[in-house]
Each structure stands twice: as structure tokens, then as C-alpha cells.
Design brief:
alpha/beta; Endonuclease, Chain A; two-stranded parallel ribbon; 18 helices; 17 strands; 45% helix
Length: 485
């Protein structure tokens, strides 16, 4: 027995030495085969070789992206791409006919065709609804006028006076015989002490949670969130944007935590894209396939805007929304305006913004001066110098916190919806946006942006460079966490 112990004692250092070569070697092979950024690959390779065992542990936990595989396994990316309600693949391949003054945006439209497989639909009208004081009454009136269906998807549904108004309106619709379906994200539902999905169900309204988990801190479920805000009534009228259902958006009531935002009333054929996205989400969560004219209506042509839905999520084979943003920045000739509450673009988008500014494009980014997530604001500040140095203008709007999300290019192309300019929206969450080709709509959004800039303070390179060393280090440490924010 002693002889065996002595033999093992002599041999185990050799096993440790072999493992210190084999494991980093296997990790290096994985890094070389999976990483797309050379600097990221070099950094991880250095870590796993210099700190063989702890480095391997860090790589297993933080370096391997299992998110997309998990998302695709949970939710195969079909549904909308094959849904006849959203338009045929053949129609999506047809080059759109744009006005002469917007002819250069044809390449962008072709890119969106390729990555969404959805057609650019003419004949739409989108109406900006600034704040909950404008948006919520219209949404409640639409629910009260519903005759066949109401589909509502939201990230947050608060138990407050506004949330209870929506519950009552949805309950009234269900009692009239309207098919009502409400989808609330499971993490967003935890923002309220009382679960509004359960309250809806007790009142007889069919509701469900998106990816519920007994362990809400579980990383995959914190990432795979449905951040979409979609409401479609009778398949004819839609509402989308960045607004959750909570009283804080009603500024006229002077809420304790006021939040500025813009929602959009949508009419026309693009409502089919909204409805199909909701139907796809509902089928994924509940297994129920919603069909019939109320869910697959043919909305009438009501306006002049050409528009297309842009559903995106971690189940995409590629970063669909990032590609569209890169395409929009690459075709811009005169101006780019961006309004977003969270601004942590990856290096691809930073470079595209820099290149646009260096080409002579006027690039304005409007951010809240005081964010509601300190870590995110610190990380955003840490990288602003890269864009300011190349001529991108950054504006900081005063409180209340501005949750608005929109983008306008060359006074003709616009994008609105639920997505922020941060890794969570661009890579980790399910989002829904609408791209719009229409000068009148873009003019309206540009007026909103000009009003925000008129009340904002410019953020200059001197401001960012003048931060104290402790603040710079703090912001830099937050920036290191940006892939997970």
C-alpha cells in the first residue's frame, strides 16, 4: 500500500505539468476556431497560458458564448421567416422603389431585405406619441374599440394606476368576447411587487410569462429576455416603441420616478410584421398558434411611408440589428441623429460612427445627462472620447431620464422601436424595431431631436478628458464589463 502511495506521489507532479499544457492547448484551439476579433482571441490565449488553471476557469465561465446556441435550442429561428402574414421571401427579394432623393438608401433597403427576409411594405402611417400622457389614452381607447383580437407584449407591466387601467381595459375586452393575449417578460414582471400576469389570469384574461425561471439570477434567463413592446388590435392598428406600461411615463401626473419616452401608433401593411412577431412569440411561450382574420388581417394602405419590421434576438444566425445599423451609417451622406438611453456600442459601431463623421456626415448622439443605471452610464462615458475625437457630437439632456430610442439618417430613413445601443439589446435580448423610409416622418422625428438638443448640454472632448483619475479608472472598469451590461 505504501509503495502505491509513493508511486502516486512521484507521478502526480507530472500529471499537473501535462494538464498545464493540454488544457490551455485545447482552450487555444477553441479560441482560434470561435473568436472573430483578433484582440479578444489574443487576450484569452494569453490568459489561459499565463494562468493555466484559473485562466481556464475564467474562459469557461466568461469566454465561451453559449448564449446563441442556447437561444436557438430554446427557440429555433423559424416562425416569422416562414409566416405568410409577414410577406413572402420572393417579395422580400424584390428591390424597393425609393424616391430619387432617397435613391442612395436603396442599398440599405437591400441589406434589410437580406437579413430579415421581410418585404418593405408601402402605404403606412406612423404617429409619434410623446410620453405616456399621449400614448396610454390612445392604447386604452384601441383596446376598448377592439372587436376581435388584442395582442400585447411588454417587458414591464407595473402594478400601479396605469397598469391597473390596462388590466381593466383588457378585462372588458375579454368579457366582450375579444381574444386577448398578454405576454409579459418574466424578469420585467419582477419590477413590480405584484405580478400583473397573475392578476390578469384571475380576471379571466389569458396571459403568460416569457421564459420564467425559478432562479431569476440564472445568467441565460437574465440574457434571453423579451424586451419587445408590441400591441396589435384586430390585426389593423399597432403600437410599438420603447415605452413600458408604468405610471412613470405619465409626466403630467408628476410621478415619483418620471421617465420621458416616445411610443408610435402604426397603421398599414407593416402591422402584419408586428402581429406576426407577437404570434410567433406567443406560440413559443404557450404552444398556442393564433390564427384567423383577427391575427392575420390585411391592413389597409393608410399613408405614404414605406416600412418594415425588424425583429431581432439571440436566436438570429447573425447580429441582424447591428448589420442594419452598420448599413445605415455606411450609406449616410448628410446627417445621422441618434437618441438612446444607453450607449455602449461595440467597436464595429464605434468605427462606423467615426468613419461617418470623418466623411463629413453630421453625426449627433443624444443621451440622458443622468442615467438610471450608473454602471451603464460609467461604461458609456469611458468610450465617448473615441467618437468625440473624430467629430461625433454628443448631447446630454436634462432630467427627467430620457428613455427615447430613435435614429434618423439623411432626413429620410428612420428607425424606432425597443432596442438600445448596448450589448444587451444588440446581442442578448429579443427586440422589435421598425425601419421607415419617409421624409415626412423623418422630419417629425428630426423636430423632436432638435428640441432635445436645444435643451441639452454638449459633451466635449475636454469634458471627458478632464475627469479626475479616480473617475476615469472607475469608468474604465465599468467599460470592461460592457459585454455583459
Amino acid at each position: 500500500m505504501g509503495e502505491m502511495a509513493t508511486t502516486f506521489a512521484d507521478f502526480w507532479p507530472h500529471l499537473v505539468a501535462i494538464a498545464a499544457i493540454v488544457f490551455p492547448g485545447l482552450a487555444t484551439v477553441h479560441i482560434l476556431l470561435t473568436k472573430q476579433d483578433a484582440r479578444e482571441a489574443a487576450s484569452w490565449t494569453t490568459i489561459v497560458w499565463l494562468v493555466p488553471y484559473l485562466g481556464i476557469l475564467f474562459y469557461l465561465v466568461l469566454g465561451i458564448s453559449r448564449l446563441r446556441r442556447r437561444a436557438i435550442r430554446l427557440r429555433p429561428p423559424v416562425g416569422l421567416r416562414r409566416d405568410p402574414r409577414a410577406g413572402s421571401a420572393a417579395a422580400a427579394k424584390q428591390p424597393p422603389a425609393l424616391p430619387d432623393h432617397a435613391h442612395h438608401l436603396g442599398d440599405l433597403a437591400g441589406l434589410a431585405n437580406a437579413v430579415t427576409h421581410l418585404p418593405l411594405a408601402p402605404g403606412n402611417r406612423l404617429m409619434p406619441l410623446v410620453g405616456g400622457d399621449a400614448a396610454f389614452p390612445q392604447m386604452l381607447a384601441a383596446i376598448d374599440s377592439a372587436e376581435r383580437t388584442v395582442g400585447l407584449a411588454t417587458y414591464i407591466f407595473d402594478d400601479d394606476p396605469t397598469g391597473r387601467q390596462f388590466v381593466d381595459a383588457l378585462d372588458r375586452a375579454a368579457r366582450r368576447g375579444v381574444q386577448v393575449r398578454v405576454l409579459i417578460d418574466a424578469v420585467g414582471a419582477r419590477y413590480s411587487m405584484r405580478n400583473m400576469g397573475s392578476r390578469l389570469q384571475r380576471q379571466g384574461v389569458t396571459a403568460a410569462e416569457f421564459l420564467p425561471s425559478m432562479f431569476p439570477w440564472h445568467m441565460s434567463y437574465l440574457n434571453l429576455r423579451n424586451h419587445r413592446k408590441i400591441m396589435v388590435v384586430d390585426g389593423m392598428v399597432g403600437f410599438t416603441g420603447g415605452m413600458n406600461i408604468r405610471a412613470g411615463h405619465r409626466l403630467e401626473t408628476q410621478p415619483r420616478h418620471p421617465v420621458q419616452d416616445i411610443h408610435f401608433r402604426v397603421e398599414g401593411p407593416v402591422v402584419r410584421h408586428m402581429s406576426a412577431t407577437f404570434v410567433d412569440d406567443w406560440a413559443f411561450v404557450t404552444g398556442e398558434m393564433l390564427d384567423g382574420d383577427g391575427w392575420a388581417a390585411e391592413p389597409q394602405t393608410t399613408g405614404t411611408a414605406m416600412a418594415r419590421g425588424l425583429p431581432s434576438g439571440p436566436d438570429d444566425a447573425f447580429d441582424r440589428l447591428v448589420w442594419v445599423l452598420l448599413g445605415a451609417l455606411s450609406v449616410a451622406r448628410r446627417s445621422v441623429q441618434i437618441v438612446t438611453p444607453y450607449f455602449i456600442p461595440d467597436q464595429r459601431l464605434i468605427t462606423a460612427l467615426q468613419v461617418a463623421a470623418l466623411r463629413g456626415v453630421s453625426v449627433d448622439v443624444v443621451l440622458p445627462a443622468v442615467g438610471n443605471l450608473r454602471l451603464v452610464q460609467w461604461a458609456a462615458t469611458a468610450q465617448l472620447w473615441q467618437m468625440l475625437h473624430q467629430g461625433v457630437r454628443v448631447w446630454l439632456t436634462p432630467p427627467p431620464f430620457d428613455h427615447t430610442k430613435l435614429m434618423v439618417v439623411d432626413g429620410h430613413w428612420s428607425m424606432v422601436g425597443s432596442a438600445n445601443w448596448d450589448p444587451r439589446s444588440l446581442h442578448l435580448n429579443f427586440e422589435f424595431c421598425v425601419e421607415v423610409y419617409d421624409r415626412g416622418f423623418a422630419d417629425t422625428l428630426q423636430a423632436i431631436v432638435r428640441d432635445k438638443i436645444g435643451r441639452a448640454t454638449p459633451c466635449t472632448l475636454a469634458d471627458v478628458s478632464g475627469r479626475g483619475l479616480p473617475v476615469k479608472v472607475r469608468d474604465g472598469l465599468a467599460w470592461l464589463l460592457s459585454p455583459y451590461l
